[in-house]
Design brief:
By secondary structure, the protein is α+β, with helices and mostly antiparallel strands. It contains 15 helices and 7 strands. It folds into 3 domains: 4-121, no CATH class; 124-367; 394-427. Strands 1, 2, 3, 4, 5, 6 and 7 form a 7-stranded antiparallel beta sheet that branches. Residues 438-458 are annotated as: Disordered.
């Protein structure tokens, strides 16, 4: 099948079937070389081929071709639109044939029968293998997430007194062992499955406990009204939220691992139930993620409400308000990052994640800007007050000759002094004039001893 490949899309990933060279050229031509991908072992499909000559032909076909699973991203989904994939007998699975045509060897959709891999007995098995690849890719994403936030989930679980957490640690070890055996053996035996089949209950209990803890933290954030209390609680809640989100991520990772093992077991034991079982596992996973999404939405709502309160009181609480906003933004960014890594579709999309991250980085700058603006306003008011208070003491141009004269206060003081001096001088002159105009004899008579000693006539 040189120059031709089959494209299968199940909504989570793409499977490309063809020669290794053709697959590489196709991915390169579509700009998908850097999209996460993994090799798909087509030989596992051999037991699902029909018997007889058809089976022999199918075996040869599988041996001559390679399979590559490619994660479905916005880029890869856009790249395959032009190939007009058509639906198959398996719900949610679409197929197309592509080939190189023309002098420039451009990949185009070609009108050709889909081949033996689209047979009713084979396609469900191929769909299950694709689902396993998607789950394993998601498990890797969660592992990277846990490494990024640097949370040791086993340490968190050990610090809890509830017995379910000790069981969770044991389940994690058993599942990890089963995955190693699966990779070596190429399947899941009865013995291996008997060890892990009870792990789902432990995982579900731990997830439920973690969700209750996060709901309780959201309640703490919501019931506080005083800004200082909100600031204190938000800072205390931040690491707790991060820890319980890490526990939830571990729960999803282990549940995905169990689903991978379970699909292998169904492939080998009851292949006729494979399609229904695959659909059931998908619905179960969607239900787990929906439960988590409701809790994280509750947390986000509480955080956003506290941010609104803090922003409304920033001038009255210049210290608690920025602290509350910064801590809240960090919690919000952590929640959205958690949802993104786990593939949770909620109201907090990728754009929302960028907004939270930007807010977490910009809060400090905004607080500094607001503080600067407030300080500038205070300085402006202070300068105006100082200007009015000191204006009488600043030199002014009184006579209009362009040269500053004495300050108004000094001029007023001199004028007041001159007026007082003039009034005093006038009083002195008036008193002197009064003395000079009085009859001399009257004055002398008044001062004469004789006059004073004379008896009064009766």
């Amino acid at each position: 099948m040189d120059g031709e490949i089959q494209i299968i899309n199940d909504g989570d990933g793409l499977t490309l079937i063809g020669s290794e060279t053709d697959i590489d050229e196709f991915l390169h031509s579509e700009g998908l070389s850097d999209v996460p991908s993994s090799t798909l072992n087509l030989q596992r499909l051999t037991p699902f081929m029909s018997t007889g000559a058809t089976a022999a032909q199918a075996g040869t076909h599988l041996a001559e071709n390679s399979g590559r699973w490619v994660r479905l991203t916005a880029e890869s989904a856009e790249a395959i639109k032009k190939y007009n994939l058509i639906s198959t007998d398996t719900p949610g699975v679409f197929h197309a044939m592509a080939g190189q045509r023309g002098s420039i060897a451009k990949w185009l959709q070609i009108d050709k029968a889909p081949g033996l891999l689209m047979a009713p007995t084979v396609l469900p098995a191929l769909s299950a293998m694709m689902q396993q690849q998607a789950l394993e890719q998601q498990m890797k994403n969660i592992e990277r997430y846990l490494e990024t936030i640097d949370e040791k989930v086993d340490d968190i679980l050990r610090s809890q007194k509830d017995a379910v957490f000790s069981e969770m640690i044991g389940a994690s070890l058993v599942i990890a062992e089963a995955l190693v055996v699966r990779d070596r053996v190429g399947g899941v035996s009865d013995v291996t499955w008997s060890k892990v089949q009870s792990s789902s209950l432990t995982i579900a209990k731990t997830q439920a406990y973690a969700l209750r803890q996060l709901d309780a933290l959201a309640g703490k954030l919501k019931k506080k009204k005083d800004l200082s209390d909100i600031s204190r609680v938000t800072k205390r809640v931040e690491p707790e939220v991060r820890e319980w989100l890490a526990v939830l991520a571990k729960c999803i990772q282990l549940a995905d691992a169990v689903a991978v093992l379970e699909l292998d077991r169904i492939l080998e034991s009851t292949p006729e139930q494979l399609e229904k079982h695959r659909e059931g596992l998908l619905a179960s996973r969607d239900g787990r993620l929906e439960a988590i999404s409701k809790t994280t939405a509750h947390l986000i709502a509480s955080i956003e409400e506290n941010i609104k309160r803090a922003n409304a009181r920033v001038l009255l609480n210049p210290f608690d308000s920025p602290t509350t906003v910064r801590a809240s933004n960090r919690v919000g960014a952590g929640i959205v990052s958690f949802e993104t890594q786990l593939g949770i579709e909620s109201i907090h999309a990728a754009g929302e994640a960028r907004r939270w991250r930007q807010a977490a980085g910009e809060t400090k700058d905004k607080a500094l800007q607001m503080s600067s603006e407030s300080l500038a306003k205070a300085r402006e008011v202070g300068d105006a007050t100082l200007d009015r208070a000191t204006q009488p003491f600043r030199p002014i141009d009184i006579d209009g000759d362009g040269i500053p004269d004495d300050p108004r206060a000094a001029v007023a003081a001199r004028q007041a002094g001159a007026a007082l001096k003039g009034a005093a001088s006038g009083l002195s002159t008036a008193f002197s004039t009064f003395i000079e105009t009085k009859p001399k004899e009257s004055i002398e008579g008044a001062d004469s001893p004789k006059a004073l000693d004379s008896p009064t006539e009766e």
